[in-house]
Design a protein that fits this description.
With 148 residues, this protein is of the alpha+beta class. It is 18% helix and 34% strand. It contains two helices and six strands, in the order βββαβαββ. The protein has a six-stranded mixed beta sheet with strand order 1-2-5-6-4-3, with helices on one face. α1 packs across α2. The longest helix is centred in the middle third of the chain and has 14 residues.
Length: 148
């Protein structure tokens, strides 16, 4: 039987890094708490895609930004980790629904994420620790080209 997913905490085994100086972490003694990633500056035309929100709702939000009276000729769709495929799909759906009027420009990056490892038993002498890891990200500029 599978356990329900909890967004902030995980009881999954924590693998030690390849660093020979790393301390082995007993997964029974620590709770993994994933911090939110550092985000780029939030502009009105930035859309951060995630896997929790409905795909159609995210697509509609992007379409509204491009078509609405807000005057945006471009939006930037950002996806991190598992949401990369969804960000790409949103950008491609926007391009297809515009009959090719929209163009795409994609950039990839690596984002450093920080996890907190908190001891299960607060009475023990174990100290909270942090761990960093890398995750892939994509930034897709969806725009109307300048008329020639």
């Amino acid at each position: 039987m599978t356990e329900p997913r909890n967004s902030g905490m995980s009881s999954l085994p924590v693998k030690p890094s390849d660093n020979p100086c790393a301390v082995d972490i007993d997964p029974v003694e620590y709770t993994l708490r994933k911090r939110l990633p550092r985000k780029l500056p939030k502009r009105r035309n930035d859309v951060y895609v995630n896997m929790k929100t409905d795909f159609r709702a995210q697509l509609a939000r992007c379409q509204k930004l491009l078509d609405g009276g807000s005057g945006h000729r471009e939006i930037c769709v950002h996806g991190l980790g598992l949401a990369i495929n969804r960000a790409i799909n949103i950008a491609l759906q926007l391009q297809a629904s515009s009959q090719g009027a929209l163009q795409l420009a994609a950039n990839t990056s690596t984002v450093e994420l920080v996890d907190d490892l908190e001891p299960e038993d607060p009475d023990e002498a174990a100290e909270p620790m942090t761990r960093t890891r890398n995750n892939s990200a994509i930034h897709i500029k969806v725009f109307y080209p300048d008329p020639q």
